[in-house]
Write a structure and sequence with these properties.
Aldehyde Dehydrogenase, Chain A, domain 1, Aldehyde Dehydrogenase, Chain A, domain 2, single chain, 475 residues, alpha/beta, globular, 2 domains
């Protein structure tokens, strides 16, 4: 049993003010793999006080010196990548090969994107001959991160905040905290000044709410469910702190009749990746009617060919979902879908041969319509819904008929149509024809998918205030 009860506060590992043990469950076995402690108000206050005391000195540190420390952290992260992959695989169930390549790799990718953005980033600019515009760190930032892509989200928050000159208190998901505790070791090894980075474990109703309400916290950056994002916004309202939210999604993947022959297969695989636990997953496949029946057949083939297994095994497959709570939620939504639509692959229960662990069968529903629960609610499991459309206008209307607006997808060989539809979709990211986004591209959404953007220069701006100064003499 791994014991990780301490928090990282003011440059040191410290015991919680009062012990509140919580088991970390390995989702492949349903057995405890580690124990942490949940923080309380005294721990939150200590971490915020450390960040506040460190802020003035860190904010005054030249940007190039801050970047130099971040580069040290980057090198440490890469050199200890195998440890990070093991921690992520154990805590949230990503198969070890996927954890090493994709989960750990996401952190490396985003670090590189920030370094590129910082090369040309201007913290000062001349607006006129006598007016200067300054970009300055917002202050102490509470960073609340999820369990589904741990290092993806930790890096997207910690790196730009520290690069901007902010000091931070990180509260990772209590469901998957081991990777963030390891990240704190990396920060300590890199030699950041004490108080610049702090970590307190806790749950949303505890440390998460305490950070959101705290008068000495200037900003909250949160990734998680829309429900939790609303609660955080309300908790933060009394102090009028900045709140940046990256929330849920219900991505529409529009496949026109002239799409390439691999479009359906690519979309189904993307939906099932990470066991469906990605907010930007293309979980709604909208198919032009002439290709609809063939698309269903292909999606069924992909589902049936998608192997499910324990995270410790090598190879390409999907692992369990993260917890019993998530497993039960997905099972209920699959059962709801069976009452609403036509089940063509998968279904309730565990895959054959897996009697323990939070394993979900890759599932496909056909003949879905937007008045159904499975078309509107984020399932967050390997569940794909397919529905037909007859015209471009209808496809856009179906895609936009959702409270979410994070990521949508368009597949067509007609470039004019592809660009036209991309403009009409109400989402923050539109991936077309399987072309991934560039390093440093802004990640974020419209509507109930949140506000703000993460990654690259846009991600840096989230942690900066803009100050205009008149009468600035020429230097």
């Amino acid at each position: 049993m791994i014991e990780k009860r301490q928090f990282y506060i003011d440059g040191a590992w410290v015991n919680p003010a009062a012990p509140r043990d919580l088991d970390v469950i390995d989702p492949s076995t349903e057995e405890p793999c580690a124990v942490i402690s949940l923080g309380d108000q005294a721990d939150t206050d200590a971490a915020v006080a450390a960040a506040r005391a460190a802020f003035d000195g860190w904010a005054a540190t030249p940007p190039e010196d801050r970047v130099a420390l971040l580069r040290k952290l980057y090198e440490i992260y890469k050199s200890r990548a195998a440890e990070m992959g093991s921690a992520i695989s154990k805590e949230m169930g990503a198969p070890i090969d996927y954890a090493n390549a994709n989960q750990v790799g996401a952190g490396i990718w985003h670090m590189g994107g920030f370094f590129k953005a910082l090369e040309g980033f201007r913290f000062e600019s001349d607006f006129t001959a006598t007016e200067k515009h300054l970009k300055e760190p917002i202050g102490v930032c509470g960073l609340i991160t999820p369990w589904n892509w741990p290092m993806n989200q930790v890096v997207l928050k910690v790196f730009p905040a520290l690069a901007a000159g902010c000091t931070v208190v990180l509260k990772p998901s209590e469901v998957a905290p081991l990777s963030s505790l390891l990240f704190a070791e990396f920060v300590d090894q890199a030699g950041f000044p004490k108080g610049v980075f702090n970590l307190v474990n806790g749950d949303g109703s505890g440390v998460g709410t305490q950070l959101s309400k705290h008068r000495d916290v200037d900003m909250i950056s949160f990734t998680g469910s829309t429900r939790a994002g609303i609660a955080i916004s309300k908790a933060a309202a009394d102090t009028l702190k900045r709140v940046s939210l990256e929330l849920g999604g219900k991505g529409a993947n529009i496949i026109f009749a002239d799409a390439d022959e691999d479009a359906v297969k690519r979309g189904a695989r993307h939906c099932f990746a990470n066991s469906g636990q990605s907010c930007n997953a293309p979980t709604r496949m909208l198919v032009e009617r002439s290709r609809y029946d063939a698309a269903i057949e292909t999606a069924v083939q992909v589902a049936e060919a998608t192997r499910v297994g324990p995270a410790s095994e090598a190879g390409k497959f999907i692992g369990p979902v993260v917890s019993e709570v998530q497993f039960d939620k997905i099972q209920k939504l699959i059962e709801t879908g069976m009452q609403e639509a036509r089940l063509v692959a998968g279904g309730p229960g565990r895959p054959e041969g897996l009697n323990r662990g939070y394993f979900v069968r890759p599932t496909v529903f056909a003949d879905v319509s937007n008045d159904m629960t499975i078309a509107q609610e984020e399932i967050f499991g390997p569940v794909l819904s397919i529905q037909p459309f007859d015209s471009e206008d209808e496809a856009v209307a179906i895609a936009n008929d959702t409270p979410y607006g994070l990521a949508d997808y368009v597949q067509t060989r007609d470039d004019d149509k592809r660009r036209r539809v991309a403009r009409r979709l109400r989402a923050g990211m539109i991936e077309t024809n399987g072309q991934g986004f560039a390093q440093g591209s802004p990640f974020g959404g419209y509507k109930q998918s949140g506000n703000g953007r993460e990654g690259g220069a846009h991600g840096l701006d989230e942690f900066l205030e803009v100050k205009a100064v008149s009468g600035w003499a020429a230097e």
